[in-house]
Amino acid sequence: QVQLVQSGGGMVQAGGSLRLTCAASGVHGRTFTNYNFAWFRQAPGKEREIVGSVAWGSGVTFVSDSVKGRFTISRDNAKNTVYLQMYMLQPDDTAVYYCAVRHRASPPNEYQYWGQGTQVTVSS
Hints:
The protein is 0% helix and 52% strand. The protein contains no helices and eleven strands.
């Protein structure tokens, strides 16, 4: 059973930075080579949206247009950890952020495992 434990987040003023961490465990052989990780967010009254993703094996990343140039996604193989580094935060970035993972053979939108969620609040 894959487990994702998130940390980081909190409250910051507009223009500030935060880093979210997602520590993964529970994969046989302790390698996530065949998995894709993603960060999602959900703001009050809005649908959940994907922020970005990283293919663990190749390291290829994707970030959505809404955060491109401000957010980056990275992974640490040794720590089985994925990061979401957020710069130039804006009030519209206020949301609960979730880490999720799926096997790369799964349909692109079907993430099987989710972190507990982390609140990010950006004040103007």
